[in-house]
Design brief:
This is Carbohydrate ABC transporter permease. The protein is mostly helical. The protein is 66% helix and 0% strand. The chain has one domain: MetI-like (MetI-like fold, Orthogonal Bundle), CATH 1.10.3720.10.
């Protein structure tokens, strides 16, 4: 019969737990404030007052932002960019990384050298803007998708992960008459599901939160992403036609702002738990060969 020994907490442990708990509470409070204000009934809302829980619950702010065309347009733009951009990023990243793992591919080392070069040396904002402009992509969703189809860090991590897959599986598939495309689709991709899940989350979060590129490439307000619209709502005041009072049935500006911020956070918060179990595993597998 084995005895389970419980570790006694030392004074240092208590200090660590107390500090971490305090930091956690400090980090959570802003989110509680945002959620509480966004769900507060306009009739009882008091500006600049902290609400741990709404004194009276209401969905008026959410109903209002979902009734405005600007907000709906930004949601459509962001969803399109996130879905299409994430899918294309996965396709380009994993196909290119798989090609770089093939030792019989001519020019593989040259391409890999270019990839590593871009990891060290970056172009500036102006060259990137000129490229997008000369390609005729300004005021287009593709200006936010094509330039970001992959990056050096992601390629190196995915390549390292694919290098760790047993080479014997590919050799067996070739003996059975499977071509390179079949090996990639039937063997490599199924074995890469942890990495695919992890990078799906990376890419989706990046595309959903895209802001700076949208700010400089998109000038048409109808094509603004959600993050650009929220910036305009929070810092530039009233792009949705919101007043600071509840007159004419319009919720207070602060409740509308918090509802918009909450709307931008919730999708990622909902997706993350389903991919969280693959998250750490996928990244670790991508960084270790063996």
């Amino acid at each position: 019969m084995s005895l389970v020994h419980q570790k006694r907490l030392t004074a240092a442990d208590w200090i660590n737990y107390s500090v971490l708990t305090a930091l956690s509470v400090i980090c959570v409070f802003p989110f509680l404030y945002i959620f509480s204000v966004s769900f507060t009934d306009p009739a009882v809302y008091v500006p600049l007052k902290f609400y741990l829980l709404p004194p009276k619950w209401s969905l008026d702010a959410y109903k209002y932002i979902l009734s405005t065309q600007n907000f709906l347009d930004s949601i459509k733009s962001t969803v399109f960019i996130t879905v299409v951009g994430t899918v294309l990023q996965l396709i380009v990243t994993f196909t290119l990384a798989y090609g770089l793992t093939r030792k019989d591919l001519d020019g593989r080392k040259i391409v890999l050298g270019f990839v590593i070069f871009t990891l060290v040396f970056h172009t500036g904002i102006v060259p990137n803007y000129l490229v997008v402009k000369n390609l005729g992509l300004l005021n287009s969703y593709w200006a936010l998708i094509w330039p970001n189809l992959t990056n050096a860090w992601t390629l190196i991590v995915v390549k390292s992960f694919l290098d760790s897959l047993p080479a014997e599986l590919e050799e067996s598939a070739k003996m059975d008459g499977c071509n390179d495309l079949g090996i990639f689709c039937r063997i490599v991709l199924p074995l890469s599901m942890p990495a695919i899940a992890a990078f799906t989350l990376f890419f989706a979060v990046s595309q959903w939160n895209i802001y700076f590129n949208a700010l400089i490439y998109i000038s048409d307000a109808k094509k603004w992403t959600l993050q650009v619209l929220i910036k305009a709502l929070v810092l530039d005041s009233t792009p949705l036609g919101v007043s600071g009072t509840a007159a004419d049935g319009i919720p207070p500006l602060e409740t509308v702002r918090m509802a918009a911020v909450t709307f931008a956070m919730v999708p990622i918060l909902l997706v993350y738990p389903f991919l969280q179990k693959y998250f750490a595993k996928g990244v670790m597998l991508g960084s270790i060969k063996g």
